[in-house]
Amino acid sequence: MLSSLLSLSFVAAVLAATAPVALAALGGALCGRAGVFNIALEGQMLWAAFTAVGVSHWTASPWWGVLAAVVTTALLSGILAVGSVRWHADPIIVAVGLNLLALGLTGFLLRSVFDASGTFAPPGLVGLPDLSQLSDVPVLGRLLAGQSVLVPLALLLPVAAAWWLARTAVGLRLRGVGDHPAAATTLGVPVSRYQQLTVLVAGALCGLAGAQLALGNVTAFTENMTAGRGWVAVAAVMLAVNRPVGVLLACLLFGAAEAWGFRLQGIGLPQQLTDAAPYLVTLVVLVLARARRARRSPLPAGGTP
């Protein structure tokens, strides 16, 4: 078992499991930096997965599916942007409504448009092409040759986002919007516009996440196929305190737990038990991280932070 965990094929499985969660979590982290707590990642990923498969089926091109997922999910996230930022509604309530809307809408459209129930995997549905041109590259080929281009993109984007937030004027303004919105306003920064655009960008990232899940990890759409990955992304955002690179590391931990769960199925453990492994690991890490922060920053005597 230990040798299988240290193999390159296991690492490749970790990367595949990490990619969709990392893309969605990056969107959540950017929203957190802008001062918007986005827990609509689950619904946005699910909608993106449905759109990617549907458009890919109609056009016979996975790239049109990816584009449709990005655009329509960004538009869907406009509900959160307008509701929570412009109309000052509670972002938690708006996001919960968005998650429920995506769950119900994808199930309804699956039956009414595609006359399918449960899983939609029509003959001829084309998934994202892999990076087989890297197959001759030592080590890297073993890790990425079977992956779509969205997998390395999911690993690079958090690093690029961290650099952008720390080194560019727009990134620093975005951090200022989230940390001190009143001060940002006095300096002439359009706080509302920054927050709304960030929520839309997060929707586009969830579009990539859903496309990778439905056209990269598998080539099909299944009802509620996100299966809590959006919530794990929210947990990663909280664990990393909105830091993009920390979010990526947290998602790699989730990906390792998911890949490990598949390995455990190979030795005969029940699928229901192994499927719970990533969520159990996420819960344990969240509790440990919270306990560590509590020790570092104990509450004052009155109990108010």
UniProtKB/TrEMBL annotation:
Its placement in the membrane is given as:
Multi-pass membrane protein
Keywords noted in UniProt: Cell membrane, Membrane, Signal, Transmembrane, Transmembrane helix
GO-annotated cellular components: plasma membrane
* Membrane listed as a keyword: yes
Q: Does the keyword Lipid biosynthesis apply?
A: no
What InterPro entries does its record include? ABC_transp_permease
Cell compartments where the protein resides = Cell membrane
The signal peptide here is 1-24
Give the domain of life: Bacteria
Molecular function as annotated in GO:
transmembrane transporter activity
| Membrane-spanning ranges | 63-85, 92-114, 144-166, 231-256
Q: What protein is this chain from?
A: Inner-membrane translocator
| Organism this protein belongs to | Kineococcus radiotolerans (strain ATCC BAA-149 / DSM 14245 / SRS30216)
